[in-house]
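Email to the structure team, subject: GDP-L-fucose synthase model.

Hi all, the expression group asked for a predicted structure before they design truncation constructs. Nothing fancy, just the tokens so they can compare against earlier work. One-line instruction: predict GDP-L-fucose synthase, return tokens.
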Amino acid sequence: MTTGKQRIFVAGHRGMVGGEILRQLTADHDVDLVTRTHAELDLTSQSAVQDFFAEEKIDQVYLAAAKVGGIHANNTYPAEFIYQNLMIEANVIHAAHLTDVQRLLFLGSSCIYPRDAQQPMAEDALLSGYLEATNEPYAIAKIAGIKMCESYARQYGRDYRSVMPTNLYGPGDNYHPENSHVIPALLRRFHEAKLTDAPFVQIWGTGTPCREFLHVSDMARASIYVMNLSPEIYQTHTSEMCSHINVGYGSDIAIGDLARLIAKVTGYQGDVTFDPTKPDGTPRKLMDSTRLRSFGWKPEIDLEAGLASTYEIFRAEYDQGVAKG
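Reply from the structure team: attached below.
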């Protein structure tokens, strides 16, 4: 049945970003939303994806589906990371083209940039140096997704766009004590330290490396914003060879200061200490989001406020025994 509404496929709607994109589209846009779980549609199956697109008559695609993980997972399963992500991207983008989907947004990762890229990292730093070895297979897959979008735009005139998020946090995150990213890991550690009256929480490294963090709601809002930019405006600020757009908060914070801020948000009263014998990692990772700001977009959620609201959600899930991880 034809409704006249745009039929939008959110691939990866159960993930952190895809779920928030779905929520915002549901709340703020008069559209027909299409989703499939992995059990319903295996995005690594070319025939299944092509059959899905042929049947569903999709108008727009948010490609947020991906196999993701931390350093340990990337090091342990590099073949799965490069294979699954390449297949998801290739199948969805090509099937979208075959069924005349004109507008698609691909979500990448800041790990696409060289290990030693100049800070803050601008879009044209892509392919200018060596990648970080620990997540190179994943990064190469994400770079391939960007280049697929550029190639289908150049050869077929498709309006396929890419956005590169900085480090994200917020509802739907993974709070595993060992395999989660820094903010969810610290929220859990400080919460449990508060519950047990632990005298201190020790952080790996010196606490001096700086990282940028963006709330997932801002990332979803940016994705929808970029998707809905007119082609004329979008093309004015991009090019065939550098079409992706960074999405960042605009400033970074030292890990030590982040830990102390999370201690404040969680109400932990003990000490925050550091173990300088443990590795610090890259001294700084900050995205240059000048291109996105030139479109008129900026984040709305302050880091402390975002951490506080995220902690309340985590605490409720933790009490109920349903926090991811």
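The longest helix spans residues 78-98. The chain has a mean pLDDT of 94. Ping us if the truncation boundaries need rechecking.
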